[in-house]
Amino acid sequence: MPYLLKPVPDPEPLDCRILTAGLELFVDRGYHKVSVHDIQKRAGVSIGSIYNHFGGKEGIARSLYDHLLLELDELIDIVWQESQGIRARCDNLIRRLFEFTETHRHMIAFVFNAKHTEFLSESVPLNRTAPFTRLAAEIAEAIERGELRAVSPVIAQTLIFGSCVRLINLRLDGAIDQPLLAYCDELLEIVWRGLDEGQASSPA
Amino acid sequence: MPYLLKPVPDPEPLDCRILTAGLELFVDRGYHKVSVHDIQKRAGVSIGSIYNHFGGKEGIARSLYDHLLLELDELIDIVWQESQGIRARCDNLIRRLFEFTETHRHMIAFVFNAKHTEFLSESVPLNRTAPFTRLAAEIAEAIERGELRAVSPVIAQTLIFGSCVRLINLRLDGAIDQPLLAYCDELLEIVWRGLDEGQASSPA
DNA sequence: GTCTATATCCAGATAGAC
DNA sequence: GTCTATCTGGATATAGAC
Predict the structure, then answer these.
(1) CB-based contact A57:A162 (threshold 8 Å)
(2) How far is the CA of A138 from the C1' of D4 (A)?
(3) For each successive 10 residues of chain B (204 residues), what is the average pLDDT?
(4) Tell me, which fold does domain B14-195 have in CATH?
(5) Which residues on B lie below 8 Å from A118 (Cβ)?
(6) Which end of chain B is more exposed for a tag (fewer CB within 10 A), N or C?
(7) Which nucleotide is nearest to A57 (CA to C1')?
């Protein structure tokens, strides 16, 4: 199982191998161009095992989706404990996401660079999942508290995380050559310049 | 043929019916969940005709992609003639894109809300197509001329069009209830506040 | 639980009449 | 050029041995 936050256990169990194989193939080729046989082959297990564990291709994708969203939620927990104030917290989170984009490419790509509604029947769209609604709520509350300018929450969310996700997309699509961290400070400075209460300043 | 800028001819020719049917089905169900038979049925033509005109399903998608990008490029022509200065031009363009999102949903969705690399073999990724590289170049030049703050071009592009595209995505995914025009002024004000040379001001 | 071999289905593509 | 009928490949899913 592809862990974003925890180390992978050593003699990797069968279901982890299946998930890892699926993740890599889905991201590299696109979900619809991957067959169960491809996954079976790469994972080094039989078709029977795949159907036993996950019930088929979509089951693998759904398991990956659920798992990675859970890890994202845990990441937010960590970040929210580490930092205080909406700005520092968002900075921290975005910086980590940019890092993970380089170090855990497949996982970030599966979450941010795929259209899940096209292969997960009845899946909640990404922006209604727990981590995303949570971030949306945090930003809305920060606006109410006066930590950010009094703008529409949806606009603030778009500016802050939309631009972050957009950069991740561009990087994963090969449109940006440098690691995203190279742009992190600049991006955040501009975003907060647009959204900060008070005038454009940049306290760390 | 689904025209973004011109009216549709009245006794709609056969190849237009095919393209329109394909566009609607691709957007509503997702490319991979549409069969040539579905398109044939909805367009009211035979399979043979589809293969004659477009060579198959992918041919339809490619034709749509090429055509819509061309129309987007023409739209930029129009906008660039109508307005002067990077800010007014971007405002104008974004406003029109937001309008089209309401009035020409399928076309906007096909261009901005689909992963073309997943079904068009060897297709240029969206951000390397003519209209997008053109916009990127315009922004980079505006920065050089001093019309915008001296930031990395890729960041400025992300802020301006990334946030615009992101809002379109959210709207098309049903995450935003109001027409995007309701947010247009607010979005642009914040974006330019972050990017304008001189201090945050808002000349119409 | 894991495997191989096999069945079933359906999408993409073609052939050939009109 | 347009149509119907048909072929073929490949994917999902299952059956049944081990």
Answers:
(1) no
(2) 60
(3) 64 88 97 98 96 97 97 98 98 98 98 95 90 98 96 97 96 96 97 80 42
(4) Tetracycline Repressor; domain 2 (1.10.357)
(5) 30-33
(6) C
(7) D12
User: Which of B121, B126, B159, B201 is best to mutate for the A interface (most A CBs within 10 A)?
Assistant: B159
Helical segments of chain B, H only: 14-29, 36-43, 47-54, 57-82, 86-103, 105-112, 130-145, 153-157, 163-172, 181-195
Contact positions of strand C to protein Cβ (< 7 A): 1-5, 10-16
DSSP labels, A84-98 = -SHHHHHHHHHHHHH
Could you identify the residue written with the tokens 């009035």?
B103
CB crowding A147-182: b at 16 or more within 10 Å, else e: ebeebbbbbbbbbbbbbbbbbbbbbbbebbeeebee
For chain B, the farthest-separated pair of C-alpha atoms sits apart, in whole angstroms, at: 62
For the stretch B72-129, pLDDT in tens is 999 999 999 999 999 999 999 999 999 999 999 999 999 999 999 999 998 888 999 9
Structure-token pair, residue A4: 């974003």
Counting every residue written for chain A, the total comes to: 204
- For the cut 60, the answer to whether the pLDDT of residue A202 exceeds it is no
What's this model's pTM, rounded to 2 decimal places? 0.93
**Amino acid occupying residue A108:** I
Of the candidates A127, A174, A200, the beta carbon closest to that of B175 is on A127
- The label of the residue with tokens 């549709």 reads B8
* A38 closest-nt by C1' vs CA: D11
CB A191 within 8 A of CB A87: no
Whole-angstrom Cα distance, residue B177 to residue B134?
A: 31
pLDDT tens, A95-154?
999 999 999 999 999 999 999 999 999 888 899 999 999 999 999 999 999 999 999 999
Q: Which residue of B has its CA nearest to A28?
A: B118
